[in-house]
Amino acid sequence: MAHLFHSNSARRKSRHAVSLLPRSFSLSGAVSLFSLFSIFSLAALPALAAEEQTPGTPAAAAEEQTLAPVVVTAAPMSDPLTVVTDAKAPRQPVPAHDGADYLKTIPGFSVIRKGGSDGDPVFRGMAGSRLNILADGEVILGGCGGRMDPPTAYIFPGSYDRITVLKGPQSVAWGPSASAGTVLFERDFKPYTASDYRLFGSLMLGSFGRNDQVLDAQVGNSGYYARLIGTRSQMNDYEDGNGQRVHSEYRRWNGNAAVGITPDEDTRLELSAAASDGKAAYADRMMDGVKFARENVNLNFEKKKFSTLISKVEARVYYSYIDHVMDNYSMRDAPMMKQVNNPDRQTTGLRLAGDLNLSDASLLKVGVDQQSNRHRLRSTTNQNNDPYQSKTRADDAAFDDYGLFSEWTQSLTGMDRLVAGLRGDFWQAKDKRKGFSTSGETRHDTLPSGFVRYEHDFDSGNIPSTLFVGIGHSERFPDYWETISQNKQSETSDSAFNTKPEKNTQLDVGTIYQIAPGLQMSLSAFYNRVRDYILIDNSKAIKAATLVRNINATTYGGEVGASYALSHFLKSGVSLAYVRGSNDTDHTPLAQMPPLDSRFTLDYDDGAWSVGALLRLVAAQNRFDKNKGNIAGQDIGATPGFGVFSINGGYRFRKELLLSAGIDNLFDKAYAEAISRSGFMVPGYDQTTRINEPGRYFWLKLDLKFD
User: What is the spatial distance between Cα 166 and Cα 185, in angstroms, rounded to a whole number?
Assistant: First the structure.
């Protein structure tokens, strides 16, 4: 396989010699190839359909596998407005080391590309703190004022077991600001009944020097356990489909250790600690991230069957510290003046919740949560003569939130449920900067949130299905990047500190429907009205500062997913995601809305061998509002549509060992996402309008799991 991972220079030399894979390969060509692939696979259906699934056959063995095949698009909703996916499974397109790249395989998610890693996740066109992200129950907030390190930059998915997405403002139990949705990166725990161990490890090699290592080792007995997790990921600069090198290299590592006490099968007390660091190059700005140091401590207690009334009690306290350094010389040609920014952020939090069985048909979850974070900054414009290490950090902001929440699930009949929730958040923020009209000010806001959802189960040929409809309201406090960082200003002041909270009211409807034993479909649609939407407007900036405005906005759209088992071994799938937004105040399109995104998949898996294909088709985006957007990015202009074709295959040596490989962007398509950041003039690199996605990308991955 060594020839698959040749150098960048070798790729450039051989590029024009590959006449069978032209760069000008079009959408129609991709559709034709996918159709041929489908016809070839369907030709085998009669023989496959004639086979019986009996014990010992590959199909029966497939059900016993502990390692899933390659994930090309996440599973459909498992429950109303809930998507759950395996964080450790191999994926195509192969993600970077961070959480955002994993989320992009779930319909409705996009990523704002800045370089090779650390992109900002976007769900239904909403980014930043509109998307609530928790890692093992802990809130993570980055330090960079320019969003070099969104929360997902510190999340290494290979160290988690499960990713859960809760769509829309249809939950109040996981902290404030979940207007677009909530993402939970979670670790599972299965009690030990005797002395035993569990092990997961993976190795991956790929183009552009990509190499990843993951090790997750557990040992325990009925009374105690310990878990050690380590991840490391590295990649050099990648090339886009035009053969142009993109300033995008990165190297990151993460380590986590946990010890726990389990006096009985219903009680657990766990103490964990983690540390991570790395560096990353950015093609969209004048600086790179040369330090992403994070350390955290987390204490978690859980007790099930607490009493007849209280079925579960959980408590968590955590501490996190981020020390981030960015400069303009370590990872690129050094300029005359060496500049460094060094922000840091300390976050502490707690959560206490309990499940109450009010009756056989009624469950109530109640709880409180709290988070505090302090942000500081020091910098220099002349590192040689005035190093940043000798400077004192200056506080610029402090945020505190105290939340109360309750969620109630009531069974109305055997087929009908009512789910509702209420939440109150009590915010306090202080502007600790100097030299602004709001310097030294403290603001207080009390923000309510709530939802109600009706769910109805029904049988379609003895196959369970669900319909749901819900309405939710959430009020979001302006975050650090909207009020403080990089000298944000309002239309009437040199400071945006007093920007109004954002108020979302959203209707969600959908279904999880199994039409036949082999055919499953899920649909979720939404309509959202936003009062005081917080818009970042660079079209009206004064004195090079960024303007923050409150506007009214409307968004609507949804996601559709369907899969059909053509036989015991062959499965096809399709997913569509669409969102449309309007700036009702300016009578313009709402900025940073991704276009229609569709994925078509075909997978063969007989329990030992697997092969799959993915065709991604994305429409053109002609609705934009130049120089407006959110804290992660602003619109640049219209973008053309594109199609990308990828293939993968795998072999299970046994249920514990899986070898998988793939080629992403098989035809070396040159393209950029509509919400990608604009390219910066980095010395030695070609500047592009947007940061283009990687070109043809080979990868090979080995997974080992004993459970």
Answer: 12
Which residue, 482, 525, 488, is CA-closest to 502? Answer: 482
CB 148 within 8 A of CB 322: no
Q: How far is CA 194 from its chain centroid?
A: 36
DSSP conformational letter for 339: -
Handedness of CA 215, 228, 351, 319 (dihedral sign): negative
Whether the CA torsion 95, 97, 101, 105 is positive or negative: it is: positive
Q: Residue 74: its pLDDT value, please?
A: 67
Q: Are 379 and 388 in contact (CB under 8 A)?
A: yes
Q: What is the pLDDT of residue 20?
A: 35
Nearest to 641 by CA among 678, 594, 609, 683: 594
In the three-class reduction of DSSP (H, G, I as helix; E, B as strand; rest coil), residue 411 is classed as strand
Please give the angle made by the CA atoms of 506, 511 and 513, to the nearest 5 degrees. 170
Q: Which two tokens stand for residue 78?
A: 């498992």
- Contact in structure between 276 and 289 (CB atoms under 8 Å): no
The label of the residue with tokens 């940043």 reads: 388
Name the burial class of residue 391, with classes exposed (0-12), middle (13-18) and buried (19+) by CB atoms within 10 angstroms of its CB.
middle
Query: Collapsing DSSP states into helix, strand and coil, what is residue 68?
Result: coil
Are 365 and 354 in contact, with CB atoms under 8 Å apart? Answer: yes
Q: For strand 138-139 and strand 362-380, is the pairing parallel, antiparallel, or unpaired? A: unpaired
- Find, among 483, 583, 631, the residue nearest to 131 by Cα: 631
Q: How far apart are CA 552 and CA 581, in angstroms?
A: 11
CA distances from 479 to 41, 122, 142, 175, 514 (A): 51, 16, 12, 14, 41
Token match 């283009």: residue? 692
Q: What is the CA radius of gyration of the chain?
A: 25
Token code pair at residue 700: 């090979």
Q: What is the pLDDT of residue 542?
A: 57
Residue 338: how many CB atoms within 10 A of its CB?
19
Q: How far apart are CA 102 and CA 117, in angstroms?
A: 11
The Cα 51–Cα 43 span in angstroms is 15
Residue 223 to residue 234: CA distance in whole angstroms: 38
Q: What is the pLDDT of residue 515?
A: 78
Helix/strand/coil percentages in the chain, nearest 5:
10, 55, 35
Measured CA to CA, the distance from residue 689 to residue 541 in angstroms comes to 21
The C-alpha angle with vertex 611 and arms to 607 and 616, in degrees rounded to 5, equals 135
Ranges assigned E (strand) in 221-309: 224-235, 238-239, 245-246, 250-264, 267-280, 288-304
Intra-chain end-to-end CA distance of the chain, in Å: 29
Count, residues in the chain: 707
What is the predicted pLDDT for the residue at 460?
60
DSSP 684: T
pLDDT score, position 462? 63
Question: Which residues of the chain are under the pLDDT cut of 70?
Answer: 1-66, 74-75, 460-463, 541-544
- Alpha-helix runs per DSSP H in 52-149: 58-63, 99-103
Task: Provide the pLDDT for residue 177.
Answer: 78
Q: Is the pTM of this model over 0.70?
A: yes
Neighbours of 465 (CB within 10 A): 18
What is the pLDDT at residue 31?
Answer: 41
Whether the CA torsion 676, 679, 682, 683 is positive or negative: it is positive
b/e string for 507-533 if b means 16 or more Cβ within 10 A?
Answer: ebbbbbbbeeeeebbbbbebebbbbbb
In this structure, which amino acid lies at residue 268?
R
Bridge partners (DSSP) of residue 525 are 509, 558
H or E element in which residue 425 lies: strand 416-431
Residue 573 contacts residue 562 (beta carbons within 8 Å): yes
